[in-house]
Amino acid sequence: MFIKNCIILCMSWYDDSISKCSDDWNSLLALTNTGQDGKEREVIFQTVTKGFDIDRSDWQYKLPKASLNSKIRDFDAPGSKPKAVVDHDLDTEHSSKGSLEMESKQDNLSVALYRPFCKVYFHRDKGLDVDTYEALRTYSEKNSNKYLALHLPSNSKDFFCLSTNLLCNVHLTGSSTHCIPLYRYTNGEIRQSNITDWALQIFNDHYRQNEPSSPVCYAGSRELREEFLLDIPAANTITKEDIFHYVYAVLHYPAYRKQYELNLKQGLPRIPLYNNFQQWVAWGKRLMDLHINYETVTPYPFERRDVVMEVQTGISLNSSSNAKLIAIKEDGVIEIDAVTSLSGIPAMAWEYQPGYRSALEWVLSQYREWKPSDPLIANKLNNYRFNDHKEAVIDLLGRVCTVSRETIKIVGMMEG
Q1: Which residues contact 152 (CB under 8 A, 6 or more apart)?
Q2: Can you tell me the distance from the alpha carbon of 84 to that of 11, in angstroms, rounded to the nearest whole number?
């Protein structure tokens, strides 16, 4: 009887969820197919990938990138290879792109987004990265790409979307993640747009007829004047990259997320065609620039406090440098370690949440010291010390704080 009642309750919950889904969902533009057969259909994006896959085991360790390959060779014996090896990138701002590209070619290293605003180096090798090759088809060492990272639909998690110009971890926010690229690369370096010609036509036809500035007979009329029935491109033709930015803005729109909340838990997003297309494009481009180029924005001016450590206090310098990385949101404070704290963090900065925690909390969670359970790794490979990267982490927190505040401001503009 108990099991029967549980089944009835679950069926009732499911029917109720379906009934609360928006009626117009199926009339919106499908974002993409879940398949990867490369066939163009009536969708906005032609292909989608899961991103790269790194085994979430003790083989994830923080190593200086220069020593990454030598460490892998230490474990090159049969049966001892890790599935993948990654290294947190805490100093990209101060290393030149040229040297990074050279090192990637020589040592077979790639940079990827492991968690929101947290990069890693990982070693690309057939013996290490078996599950990454589908993602690599969208990636070129020589040419840039952009991705929309979305988690797979789930009744237990809220929708999220984040852009990156790097390969993205399949577990970007802890759950399975789809990555939708702007471009696809064939035969190594031949670039093709991942936005379908069908979508380009739909967007151009709709906004050419429905935007206030479009050439129509009367205000609000959908009937084009005869001279505009010719197959002549409009002066304000929409591009595929415009569509990419438009989609990114819409996926951040609070009213969209609220209206289609249940739909987004049950399937991949569908996209409405809102008025004022170019304004949405501008919002999406600004958001994408912030989220991709977060390392170049001006750091937020935290108030930093460093405690002077007295020798006679008996506090070990080693213990005082261990990372706390604790957020006290209500006070606007982050405790870095026993010596340093940051204050004056605006409440708005905590509101931006790519996934189930704020952007600042993603950074804090990734750079704490930890001890691998595998004794072999703990003894030979565990050479990460937070104090070596402390200043870089503080700098990163300042930049992510700026990105968070600006994101919330832009999203606020969408709501009017």
Answers
A1: 175, 176, 177, 178
A2: 42
* Exposure on the CB side of residue 210, measured as CA atoms within 13 A: 12
Residue-wise pLDDT tens digits, 270-281? 999 999 999 999
Asked whether the whole model's pTM tops 0.85, one would answer: no
User: Across-strand partners of 122?
Assistant: 86, 110
Residue ranges of alpha helices (H) inside 127-233 are: 133-136, 197-210
Residue 151 — φ and ψ, nearest 5°? -80, 150
Q: Is the Cβ–Cβ distance between 261 and 301 less than 8 Å? A: no
Domain ranges within the chain, ordered by starting residue: 303-307+322-414
Place of tokens 């029967």: 4
Q: What DSSP element (H or E) covers 177? A: strand 177-181
Instruction: Determine the 3-state secondary structure of 192 from DSSP.
Output: strand
CA torsion 231-234-235-239 (nearest 10°) is -110
Question: Distance from CA of residue 272 to its chain's centroid?
Answer: 22
Cα 360 from chain centroid?
14
